[in-house]
Every structure is written in C-alpha cells, then in structure tokens.
Amino acid sequence: MPETASALQSVFSRPLVLVAAAVGMVLAGTLALWAHYGTAVFYEPACDDCWKRRHSEMSARNSRILLIAAAFLAGLALCFGVVLIVAGRLSSPVAQIAAIGGPFKLTDQNGKVVTEQDLKGLPFLVFFGFTHCPDVCPTTLFEVSEVMRALGPDAERARALFITVDPERDTPAVMKDYLSSFDPHLSGLTGDPAEIAAVAKAYRVYFKKVPLDEGGYTMDHTAIVYLMDKTGRFVSPFNLKRPIEAAAGDLRRYL
Ligand SMILES: [Cu+2]
Question: How far is CA 101 from the centre of its chain?
Fold first, then answer.
C-alpha cells in the first residue's frame, strides 16, 4: 500500500499531469458555459400563449440545467481521462521496473549451481558488480554485509546476491576469495558470458567493458541494490544510505 500511495504521489507531483488537470477543468468550464449560453437560443420561447410559454420556459430551463450538468460531467470525465492517460504513460517506467527479475542459472563461489528456485521462500537483495571494482562494489557489499549482520539469526531466512558482470575474471574461486571479507550470507554468482548477459537483462542492469589507458579494463555497471520478496518478485530499489537498523528493518518486513 505505501508503494501505491507513493506511486500516486509521484504521478500527481508531475507538472504535466497538473497541466492536463488544469486544461481538463478549463475545458469542463467552457463546455458548461457553452451549454448555458450556446443552447439558450434553441429554447427561445414562442410567446403567444401565456400558459404554453410558461410551460416551455420551464422545460427549457430543465433541459438547460441537465445539459450544463452533462457538459460539466463530460468535461470532468475528459479531464480524468487525460490525467489517467498521461499518468499511465509517465508511470510505465514503474511498470517496467516491476518486471525486474526472473529465472536464472548461475554458479556460486563454492561451485554450486544456483537458480531462482533456490531462493523460493527467502527475500533477497541483488547487486551486480565485479571484484576488481575500485570503490562502489566494495562499499555496497560492506553495507549489505552490515544489514545482514543486523538481521542476526533472521539472516538465515534472507539472502544477498552479488552477481558479477565480469565473468571473464570473476571465477568461483576469485569470488570466494573476494567474499571472504564480507558477511557469509552473501552469495557470489558467476556464469558464462551468455548466462551473465541473460541475468543482467532480466534485472535490467547495464554493464560495459571499458579499456583502461594503462592496459587492462574496468567495468561500467548499474549500481542499484534490488530488494526482491520471497516469491522472487521485485519490491523496490534497496536504500543503503540510511541507518543500518532502518535498512535491516525494511528487509525484515519481507521475511
Ligand atoms: Cu562496481
């Protein structure tokens, strides 16, 4: 529910939506005015008989009120239609984010094959990176380790995945050595280039090999930590820039 509320909030905080709403309201008002003045001419009473005239004025007024109401409602409906269409188009990246994740088959730091089936029933964090990363990856893995540590015994019911985007260098043995400095609940996953490309695509992670002037290469990569629930569905990006206890509490909610 908080996700829905914040999604709505983000949609209605967009200037385009507000403009659409304003245009819709002006349109509604214009239609109502048109109904009031524009149609008056059709009901000009033919005045030869008093009773008849009074009767026709009454029905004309009723019709006009109905028309004004109808026009106003039509304008309002149009306004909301426009808002919904605009909001739908703007929030489609949210829908795309919701499609993050999916099946994968990779190898962990102990040489064991891991698939999404092994994570059924466990909420997990996913982070893509590489062991040669100078700062972002080690910092993130350190923070993830702190979160897992803060979970205490509950960490057994959660997982954290570190998936390499550099399978060429990050063999299971290299991953094992690298992860020995972090929390043991972290799984370091690698695979062949096709498997890595597939899992990165499923998680909408960008990565690219960048040659270095001094020789060798580094990797450019998306550095978002994803929170997935126990059914493997994407929940939200996981914010590590907050007190560890708060981050751990957030993960604990999905246990
Ligand atoms: Cu990195």
Answer: 13
What stretch(es) of the chain map to CATH 3.40.30.10?
Answer: 105-252
Whole-number Å distance between alpha carbons of 248 and 231: 19
Q: Where are the alpha helices (DSSP H) in 13-49?
A: 15-33
C-alpha 245 – ligand 1 centre gap (Å): 24
CA distance 230 to 123: 4
For residue 224, the CA-to-ligand 1 centroid distance in Å is 10
The domain defined by 105-252 folds into Glutaredoxin (3.40.30)
CA of 68 to the centre of ligand 1 (A): 62
How far, in Å, from the CA of 115 to the mean position of ligand 1?
23
Amino acid at 10: S
Task: Compute the distance from residue 83 Cα to the ligand 1 centre, in Å.
Answer: 40
Model pLDDT for residues 52-110, shown as the tens digit of each residue: 666 666 667 777 767 667 776 676 666 566 655 555 555 555 555 558 999 999 999 99
Query: What's the pTM?
Result: 0.64
- Calculate the alpha carbon distances from 72 to 28, 34, 65, 203 in Å: 5, 10, 10, 46
Q: Give whole-number Cα distances, 167 to 106, 108, 125, 156, 163, in Å.
A: 11, 12, 20, 27, 9
| Neighbour tally for 117: CB within 10 Å | 10
DSSP result, 174-239: HHHHHHTTS-TTEEEEB--HHHHHHHHHHTT--EEEEE-TTSSEEEEE--PPEEE-TTS-EEEEPP
